[in-house]
């Protein structure tokens, strides 16, 4: 097996999670289509028993995602990002307090409210960029849980992660960070003090819009075993083919993210200068209200832009309808560029502007992306 200690992230995505290097061994982990494993005696901690608990088909991917997030423990993979999020929400103690960004992914908010009802949680929706008001919301709560999304989906607000981690830990609490938007290449929440990281692997990690999967990562052995037991019991596991596809996608994460981040910044700058753009948001733009914070805690600004064209909802819908290279569709993080007016979804919070387009920048030629977008923007102004 390659010694991955000390490797940089761009090497880790390629080298982590390979089978042991012995003569005749495959270079990729196998897809094992078996629900059960031969055994007579009580299984040891690393023995395979039954494929809901563990399978070779996950191990390479789990090792790689765990290493990328800087954990000494392997990740836990799930059948979707939401399955990972629900598992992480189950860590909030009964009657506990959960503070969550008002502009989290809308289904994470729905899940938080459902957990609140089932287990009598107090859920406080916060403006995550407003550090003092988040800290005030945590005041008085015993062992609160702070949910982080930074950048938020879709408003791209940036949380002051180290300050909020300190405030939560000072009250004996736990910090869970959804790192889907940033990817572990641009942001390392565990290194910034978070206790658990969750991912929609569906997005950048798998990267090709062909698989739905989630992951949770923690370096805390107690939290890891609680999550593992939760997954064993609830059974929200991915299939072996999906795990293989996700690891195959992960091998090019560094190249994809490098390209899409560079294109996103370039496009955001051009859009900001376009007269048909009412508002453009991207953490890499100096005009972004938390640009300095993003610079301090991220090593890249992500590949999502929001655009509000002049002309309101009608103009925004026209842009989404008119684009040719960009695909009008929900989701993000794939090789293909996607565009969506978020408020077309009934569950999207009403504080997200009606005319806001979320752009997920892919790996196409930036000139083609710009020309297509500008043409659609100009059509929307007629
Ligand atoms: C930030 C974020 N977290 C979690 C999810 C949910 O992931 P999945 O669709 O894989 O269940 C999404 C999906 O859009 C997301 O954008």
Strand elements, count: 12
Estimated radius of gyration: 21 Å
Bound molecules: pyridoxal-5'-phosphate
Largest sheet features: 7 strands, mixed
- How many helical elements? 13
The order of strands across the largest sheet is 1-7-6-5-4-2-3
* Topology pattern, helix = H, strand = E: HHEHEHEHEHEHEEHHHEHEHEEEH
Q: Classify the fold: give the CATH topology of the largest domain.
A: Aspartate Aminotransferase, domain 2
Count of domains: 2
- Terminal Cα span: 60 Å
- Work out the helicity level: 25-40%
Return the CATH architecture of the largest domain. 3-Layer(aba) Sandwich
Mean pLDDT across residues: 97
Q: In what range is the share of β-strand residues?
A: 5-15%
Any idea what the shape is?
globular
- Low-confidence runs: none
CATH homologous superfamily grouping of the largest domain: Type I PLP-dependent aspartate aminotransferase-like (Major domain)
The CATH C-level class name of the largest domain: Alpha Beta
- Secondary structure class reads alpha/beta
Question: Layout of helices and strands, plus pairs?
Answer:
Blueprint: H1 9-15, H2 56-68, E1 76-78, H3 81-89, E2 97-101, H4 106-119, E3 122-126, H5 131-138, E4 145-149, H6 161-170, E5 174-178, H7 183-186, E6 196-200, E7 214-218, H8 221-234, H9 240-250, H10 253-272, E8 277-281, H11 291-297, E9 304-309, H12 312-322, E10 327-328, E11 338-341, E12 357-360, H13 366-380
Parallel strand pairs: 2-3, 2-4, 4-5, 5-6, 10-11
Antiparallel strand pairs: 1-7, 6-7, 8-9, 9-12, 11-12
Helix pairs in contact: 1-2, 2-9, 3-4, 5-6, 10-13, 12-13
The protein binds pyridoxal-5'-phosphate.
Residues 80-82, 85, 105, 149, 153, 178, 180-181, 200, 202, 212, 214, 331 line the site of pyridoxal-5'-phosphate.
């Amino acid at each position: 097996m390659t010694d991955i200690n000390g490797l940089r992230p761009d090497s880790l995505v390629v080298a982590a999670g390979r089978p042991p290097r012995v003569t005749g061994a495959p270079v990729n982990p196998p897809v094992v289509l078996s629900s059960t494993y031969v055994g007579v005696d009580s299984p040891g901690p690393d023995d395979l028993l039954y494929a809901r608990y563990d399978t070779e088909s996950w191990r390479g991917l789990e090792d790689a995602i765990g290493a990328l997030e800087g954990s000494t423990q392997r990740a836990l993979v799930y059948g979707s990002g939401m399955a990972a999020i629900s598992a992480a929400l189950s860590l909030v103690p009964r009657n506990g307090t959960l503070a969550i960004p008002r502009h989290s992914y809308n289904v994470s908010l729905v899940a938080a409210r459902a957990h609140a009802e089932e287990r009598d949680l107090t859920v406080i929706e916060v403006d995550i960029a407003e550090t003092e008001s988040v800290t005030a919301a945590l005041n008085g709560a015993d062992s609160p849980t702070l949910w982080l999304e930074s950048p938020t989906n879709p408003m791209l607000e940036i949380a002051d992660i180290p300050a909020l981690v300190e405030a939560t830990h000072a009250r004996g609490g736990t910090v869970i960070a959804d790192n889907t938007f940033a990817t572990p290449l641009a942001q390392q929440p565990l290194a910034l003090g978070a206790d658990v990281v969750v991912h929609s692997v569906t997005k950048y990690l798998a990267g090709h819009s062909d698989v739905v999967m989630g992951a949770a990562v923690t370096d805390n052995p107690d939290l890891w075993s609680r999550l593992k037991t939760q997954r064993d019991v609830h059974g929200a596991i991915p299939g072996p083919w999906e795990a293989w596809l996700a690891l195959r996608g992960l091998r090019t994460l560094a190249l994809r993210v490098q390209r899409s981040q560079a294109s996103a910044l370039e496009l955001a700058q051009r859009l900001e200068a376009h007269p048909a753009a009412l508002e453009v948001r991207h953490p890499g733009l100096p005009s972004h209200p938390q640009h300095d914070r993003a610079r301090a805690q991220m090593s890249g600004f992500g590949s999502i832009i929001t655009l509000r064209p002049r002309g309101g909802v009608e103009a925004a819908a026209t842009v989404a309808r008119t684009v040719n290279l960009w695909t009008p569709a929900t989701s993000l993080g794939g090789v293909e560029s996607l565009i969506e007016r978020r408020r077309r979804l009934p569950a999207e919070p009403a504080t997200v502007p009606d005319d806001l387009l979320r752009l997920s920048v892919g790996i196409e030629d930036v000139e083609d992306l710009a020309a297509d977008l500008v043409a659609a923007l100009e059509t929307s102004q007629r």
